[in-house]
Amino acid sequence: MSSFNKKIPKKRYAEDRRQFKRDEPKKDIRADAEQELRQYFDEQKFSNEDLIQAYPAIYEFIKRKAPNLAWKKYAHEFFRTYIKDLNKSNNLDLPLPYLTFEMKRDEPIFTLDWIQAGHEIDIILEKLWDYWILAQDSSAFSDDEIIGNILLCSMLYGGLNQTASLNALLEHLKNPEKIQKICDFNIIFLEPLSPSYGDLFVDEKTIRKSRNFVPDQLTRLWLIHFNTRQIRDISLDVNAYLHLIFQKIKHPYTKKTFKFLRDYANFNWLQLQNADVDPALSQCLLENTLTCGLSEHEFENFAFPKFKTQLSDEIERNVSSTAKVLPDLNTSEAVENVIFIHKNLLKIIRTSSTDQPIAELIIDFCLRYQEQFNEFSKRIILWLISLYLPTSEQIKKLSATFDFDTTQYTKAFQDNQKLADSSIYTYYTRIAEPFLTHALQYFDADDDINDLLNKIYQQIISNTRLADEADRPEFKKSKDQTIRMLKRFHTFQQIVFQAEDFELEFIASQSRPRARIIGHTAFQVILKKLNQLLHDQSISDHHYKLLKIIYILAYRTGMRINEILGLRVKDIEGLNQFSIWVQPYGSKKQGNQHLLKTDSAERIVPAYALLKDDEYQFFSDFVVEKRLENKKSLYLFSNLNENKKLNKHTVTVPLKLILNQVFKVHHYSFHSFRHTAANHLSLLLNCEYAPLVQKLTDYSENEYQKIRAELLQNQHGQNHWFVIAHLLGHIEPVETFKSYIHLSYLIAGQKLLKHHPDMPNELAKKIMGYNVTFKNLKITKDEKDFNFEKNQAALATILLNDQTNWLQSNATDILNELSVQTNQPHDFFAFFAGTEDSKISLQRFYETLNQLEIHNDPQAVSQKMCLPEELVNYWYENALNLAAIKSQKSNPRLFSIDSSTHLKPAMLDTDAELHAVTYFFEHLQKIARKNPAQIESVLNIFLNRVTASHTGIHYRWKDIDQLEHFYSQVKALFPAKFWHLLGQDLQTKLDAKQQPQLFKLAKASTDKHPSTQEEFPRLQLYSVKDGHALAAFKFCLHLACIGRPRSLELQVEALKITTCG
């Protein structure tokens, strides 16, 4: 009976679950706010008479305590309810508290003043056109008039309305080579000065921003005239050139006219026929909304990237960077050192009771672990110590270790008071910890140290990097206090390390967006390179899937890395059409807390609409597989057989390696994917398919229509920008424009270019300075008006200067190259390890043997070195077998009895040795391809004749013909200049006909070569310059035996077995 009364839990569908999830945290926030206020009221014990006077203090308490807007709202609600209840129960008439919000509307564009000023603009336009029409011919316009017309048209028709931008255009005209063409329009890459916002850093006091100017139809005609005349004398300023034009059109020009034009020229370009510039874009053009374009270099990398072709098939040329493919398994030494320093310093600082002062503990730590300090960590630790006013004896010890001037060091703190132990934690967390963290990215940079300090200070002051990566807004410290502490630290560096003077307040006021977009071609190359890594078995299939899906999601949706890595399987909603619910979850207590950067970051991302069909299928298959595992709170992305969130370096380090391999020069990072998604969405939702979407993205027209149908509820331009902001997790588009959208000027310029003024052919020719060289223009006698649409391409080309290099992207070459490399499965067992054909560098091969020697665990080493386990095990068995080879006297042939190594030969380091090694591995596979029997013979003879005590191999005189044969086979493997035959009376004992090659080698010996008392001839490598025999001979042949192809058989008499695979 009781089973019928049992309450059946209500099924919640996706929307209900989301609402339920939203409501649950609100209850906790409300309860916390009420508890805090109750406790505050109990502590203060306000009387009814004093309560009214206490309202401001209570407001301030709420403001100070509120961690977010929701908490503040619930606190004010409780305060209001508390007063209501107090009035009701005590028959009082206390005024109800209120919560004020400051709301300020944007100033409307279309005001009465704007319309009245527009009448004046119309008069100026009418006079301007009369001036053009009445000119006798193109020669009637002086050079200065042409420049003035360019400036005025760019204001009235091109949306260029700021003084700095106009000055930048004038600067461009002095050297007009930076004008480029894409599709059928031109782009001028302007770099106007900007007071505190821009992507181009000049110095600590100067910032410029990229302003992409697309010349409108009229400005372009005047620019063509300017180019045709080859005008280069530009001696006036913008104001003077405009004044000249106003004189020509006989219109008054006063001191206020220039400002009037800047303020109201938009009356014309906002109403141009067919130029559908929406209000959001107009605010960008007017500079009321902060945004910046792409520099010429970044635009070229985006639209026409230049790649490194004929890539080496190795993951990296050196082992250290190769091992970083799985960074969790092999964190770089620099990072490990900083982590070690950070952990130990924090432990010392937090020490509550100790016999030694904290300063002494820090000094002892520094002296003991001096080798783990880099330049940046050295500076910060010496500063922290200086805060404690160390003794002269302590300073001497530090100076001997860290090499600094003791006098200057003492001077740096002589006027300071000693820091209290209770304050060191604040100094460490505010300055030292972020300084150590931010400096990590520059520890091996070649830049000037002062430039690097500037960048690090910028990051510390804004503290965006740490807060963003950790998704912990509370990491952001008081900017004023941080600046004061940084000033103290920098003053110390100025005195001790001669650092340059910086105005930190100016740095603090700067905002520098990272204006970089990864183009669709570059993204294809990244994915192709991933395919190659899988094909070469440099990464596992599981790791490949993770990286590919994460890169696709970031590139197509703009999700932050923390949002992607924090996804659980249950955050993917839907059966046939997957959407991604980006949400916070967990708690500190449970140890699974996942926070978002802001409240607005919680959103639904329609992956089914944003991913291309093949990408979505790959993502869908992966999700289905994960769902089949049916585990509670399963992370979508985790290492094999684990349920832990991926470390972000597992994702970012392989991307960095790939980008460094395929790009000649770049400044991309994982975050560039987010910038790319924002700009792709800007194009998709605000442009027609042709030309921009078609040219700058890889979406087909069907995909373009599908995305617009899914995302756009209406066709109003303003709505489009809010959709983009929502998909990126922003409250409103202002932040999106400021930090992420870099194509707004391009989009707006292309829209303004759609306006084709009604203009007779003769007037168009007059303005553009038409001459006989303009052969491609389509001007026919039966057409009265100039046809801008037909002549778009011709005009864009005429305006160009040389841009051949700019347009020559070699994307096809690298895509074809990567396709060829991945078409056939690679057989590691068919080649000698360390050769180019093996796709395994010598450094990587040697480091694998080194790891095997340390761990004796092929499985673990294969994972660490990202190599197939079967291959590593094959090398291991070969090395063990070779190590067991003994001479007739039962001594090891390849290792001395007291050798510390037992699997591989010791590494070489001299230039001559390394030259011989490089030469050997460059020629080994080439010879093996042509004549494998020759290499097999060399290795077999080597193993049966080599001894641990000699650098070469020796023969008795009765077997001299065998040495002649061996030399004939091996000599091509090493540089000819190093070969040497050691022995007594060689030219007498050798027969020039029977042993011609050894005889020739003996004759080549000089007095710089050694003599010997040995009875038998010895063949070796010898460096005359270094004056000793080279160990490269045994080193190379030994490694070749270990890493030989599986098909090559070695017959070793001492073992009485065949050591083939």
What does this structure look like?
With 1061 residues, the protein is mostly helical. The protein has 6 domains: 14-90, no CATH class; 122-293 and 755-798, no CATH class; 351-509, no CATH class; 520-662, Intergrase catalytic core (hpI Integrase, Chain A, Orthogonal Bundle), CATH 1.10.443; 672-742, no CATH class; 911-1058, no CATH class. It is 54% helix and 5% strand. It has 50 helices and 15 strands. The strands form 5 sheets. Strands 10, 11, 12 and 13 form a 4-stranded antiparallel sheet that branches. A 3-stranded antiparallel sheet has the order 1-2-6, sandwiched between helices. A 3-stranded antiparallel sheet has the order 3-5-4. A hairpin with a 2-residue loop joins strand 4 (200-203) and strand 5. The longest helix is centred in the N-terminal third of the chain and has 31 residues, at 14-44. Residues 1-7, 311-331, 464-477 and 1056-1061 have low confidence and may be disordered.
